[in-house]
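PROTOCOL LOG
Step 1. Enter all chains and additional molecules of the complex.
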Amino acid sequence: MRRVGGACIYNASSNQQRYRSRDDRGRSRATTMGSDYGVPRELSGLQKQRSLYQPELPPCLQGTTVRVEFGDTTIAADPADDHAIRQAFPHTSGQPLAHFLRATANVPDAQIIEEHPAIRVGIVFCGRQSPGGHNVIWGLYNAIKSHNPKSTLFGFVGGTEGLFARRTLEITDDILSTYKNQGGYDLLGRTKDQIRTSEQVNAAMSACQELNLTGLVIIGGVTSHTDAAQLAETFVESKCQTKVVGVPVTLNGDLKNQFVETDVGFDTICKVNSQLIGNVCTDALSAEKYYYFIRLMGRKASHVALECTLQSHPNMVILGEHVAASKLAIFDITKQMCDAVQARAEKDKYHGVILIPEGLVESIPELFALLQEIHGLHRQGVSVENMPSQLSPWASALFEFLPPFMRKQLLLHPESDDSAQLSQIETERLLAHLVETEMNRRLKEGTYIGKKFNAICHFFGYQARGSLPSKFDCDYAYALGHVCYHILAAGLNGYMATITNLKNPVNKWRCGAAPITAMMTVKRFYGPGATAIGKPAIHPATVDLEGKAYEWVRLRASSLLMDDMYRNPGPVQFEGPGADAKSISLCVEDQDYMGRIKLLQEYLDKVKSIVKPGCSQDVLKAALSAMGSVTDVLALMSSSSMNGQTPL
Amino acid sequence: MRRVGGACIYNASSNQQRYRSRDDRGRSRATTMGSDYGVPRELSGLQKQRSLYQPELPPCLQGTTVRVEFGDTTIAADPADDHAIRQAFPHTSGQPLAHFLRATANVPDAQIIEEHPAIRVGIVFCGRQSPGGHNVIWGLYNAIKSHNPKSTLFGFVGGTEGLFARRTLEITDDILSTYKNQGGYDLLGRTKDQIRTSEQVNAAMSACQELNLTGLVIIGGVTSHTDAAQLAETFVESKCQTKVVGVPVTLNGDLKNQFVETDVGFDTICKVNSQLIGNVCTDALSAEKYYYFIRLMGRKASHVALECTLQSHPNMVILGEHVAASKLAIFDITKQMCDAVQARAEKDKYHGVILIPEGLVESIPELFALLQEIHGLHRQGVSVENMPSQLSPWASALFEFLPPFMRKQLLLHPESDDSAQLSQIETERLLAHLVETEMNRRLKEGTYIGKKFNAICHFFGYQARGSLPSKFDCDYAYALGHVCYHILAAGLNGYMATITNLKNPVNKWRCGAAPITAMMTVKRFYGPGATAIGKPAIHPATVDLEGKAYEWVRLRASSLLMDDMYRNPGPVQFEGPGADAKSISLCVEDQDYMGRIKLLQEYLDKVKSIVKPGCSQDVLKAALSAMGSVTDVLALMSSSSMNGQTPL
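Step 2. Run joint prediction.
Step 3. Record the structure below.
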């Protein structure tokens, strides 16, 4: 038994009850089971205020009656992947999109979900804690209870390990009271964040069956949703009745595709980091003696770094996607930075702010190759001490060139998805070190005339993850929680809850659900004479180097570098001006894929209704001719040859 | 010439005009002098909103008529120091306190300041940028102009170096417009922050004389005010007409004494840091796998660490004052931390948050001794490479024991006040390293049974200094700027602007001025058979280990450690609930020294008015008897023997 949020948790997997307290915050209390269920934790004044905030809901989720409209069956973004995905997910791929509409919506095929039997739902946190996660639970809880007060929501305590061990906490309004609109994942905690091996999948299935769950909701990012899709498929195959639903919650912002515009947590993380970057910019300009190298959390993709650039206007940002596309070596990046420092020194500027995404280290070709060798040795069970001697001559030379702290960090065991431990590798210190060495060399040689280069390094990540969620993330997460309920009420399995048109006010948001398999792609490895195919999976969306957000940076690169256009978005506000601000990349990008899919359907319906049997021959001819050329163009555009890019 | 805030600065010390731009933020502009004076910089939405905020003023500063009341002449806090201070500051010590009152105040001896001739005032930033600094300039500017529109305010560009070089920027409302209520010192910048050598003092004096300044306002902390007092004394001696006024602005919060309750910037810094610490606490509790070691800015004293503890309730804080008082060695601290980690592990807790003030390294006796040796070698001109071999055997043994990064940092050149470069010495990494080593040893030996200890280190400083100032700091700084004007209008020299009763609403604030020399103490060094006396100076106020703020922490130490009482104050709010929050240590401590001094005067006056010639013999006898015993007790209490402590 473990106490969480003041409540007792029965550990079903252990015969002996375990006592563990997490909420004994200075209060004396008995440790017997259930004696102080739901004791609230101490909140600060602002936390209390926030706990009273009632998130807005889009119109379709207000009230208890919701209509569901099924769209067309989905296909893979890249037709070439479709076959592999259908093979891997015979039961759960190719399912239709679902749209949730108001009860009053005048849509002929949309049905009102009439039946609301009492259901039992489990929910689990997977992956990096992202601000807003608690609100998904709250939203789901409210939706469940308002449709049938006899329904029950169980939180799995301790993430996926809690799921396997069947450690549950029944969610009540009391327990939620001090977690509403609050950051972190501490209501339930999280652990391994993986449901992948057959042992793990079976443990999850047994838990769902034993607890007789109607639905299992997985709160997580890219890898967790690949796991969720696999789980959904296995459940159908094994005739397990539990439906699996995913919710896009990840601070990395990299679970982004045709159906998902942004992830819960991304907005807050970028705002908190941009505030700090803005502060550092002001600091740099005040003392004019330091270059700040700031590494930002965000895993492989550079969405966080890009959004923070848009919000705070630092002097430079090195996007992993740009480095990978341009195949820049570590020396190219160093040289580019040194030239920038030199150009600024010529204008008598000895300060600056440079952003670096944590994924950069994997985007630099030679470092990536070195990491691959090291991870290979890890898989072979080679001990860390013996690794340096077993590297290839080329990798060994690079390894020896790197400063000691970097060597130690590169040797760390890779994460469960085989990527490097990005949060532990101080790429910003490596770059600052290389730039310093090079500037000192130039100074000595006389090719640089100016003051000594001074760098200060930062990693912004852990200090933002636990932040109070912004209003946007509070609303978005709460509404997604509601959508989860309707997905389950509609009996869908292997779906992700989606809300689109997010850049507009909440009353314009569109709620729906998309099969997780429709977001998958297949990686191909081209070898000499053969092509290997990876398992279908959701892959992190990379920053679109042709998109509007990056275009803004590209067009202003030299002003950003030279003119100190620093901008401080300030601390996240909950009332008054600024409280409703949304992330810039969300607003500049013209997404609303789901809205367009619906609009297309309307056009097609219109054609059908105009060109009915009985219409004139001319109208029919014109329709045929027009539709013929439209289909030709679309068929050409959708052919594999034009589909090499990552989605979005 | 240099462009600042969109303005042109004439560099009076150089015959050749220097062109330097700082504001060319993507705008095309001519670089000829004065052509784009006051071009505003780009602000974010929230920055813009803040720039429109009009700070509140206490009643005595509203309107243009102010009464000044002079109190008693001041003495040193420790009578033993009085002689040395009077000797060092014959002209500027022993001056009376001044209180600024409303024109309508019914105080017999208070005079209305009637004359407001046009004056010329210079202002300069010294020391670490602290949020609110810009508002001192704005407040002073408004007060100057509202009393005589012909008066002029000059900002020195580039801190003390700008002062020596007479680089001035005339402050206008246009120039201020995008700096009102904004963080940083970037309107004017700052550099060396020292006016101490006779060369520097003379350069400052020539600048004041050449610019024909009525007053010079120094914005800074502890050391800058010692410099300011010296400057004031030298000016009188040299018959320079310029009056010197200081304003207590330092994020460290260590310029604190009978007259100064808190410093501009401290409130904001603690709030921003507490937000981040609160986030990290939430993070720790969500993933339950890391110990976070967080070092906080604040120089020698631990005020910032203490206030952040009160606001965010981490598991542990190691105050430098406590370590110094208890003479804890580095191994004692390590052991204490390891025992804490072990005790938590026994309760199945593998996470935690530990705060460390940056000054800690100088409070640990053996590290301080090592630093002293190293600084001695620096003074002898020994090169860094040769230092390790020239250390005493004892110091050398300690040095060799330390990890390489620490050795490198300890060898850094000391700062201008001979203290170590505290911001560059990663004490948090040292402690995390030592704790990890010890926990691994215990694990191997079997004396610790539990999961591996994992630490993540942070230094919170640079990311908070440039922050938008809190409402409190905006108001406090703006009002202090006004007070500066009235000090100059009253013709005072060597004074610090003060506002007391700060824990109450602005309409209860009391404005005044205190001679800087009254805040000085003299350090004594006891050697065998002789006592050396240091120069009188303002010394950083240390945390009062007997005070109410520390008492709160002491009483809850074990709950904080074991029960995870984490509290997240959230981001600084400017509107709605929480916007008016003040720092906790300001509110729990019962200060208002200035208010009490005034109250005492009222009692004395009352006695005098009751016991007038003509009163009855009995009344006179009673008065004599009562006053006799009061004076006896006070004389005893004020004798040197009872005055060993640091002030406050």
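Step 4. Note key features.
The two ends of chain A are 46 Å apart (CA to CA).
Chain A touches chain B through 75 residues (CB under 8 Å).
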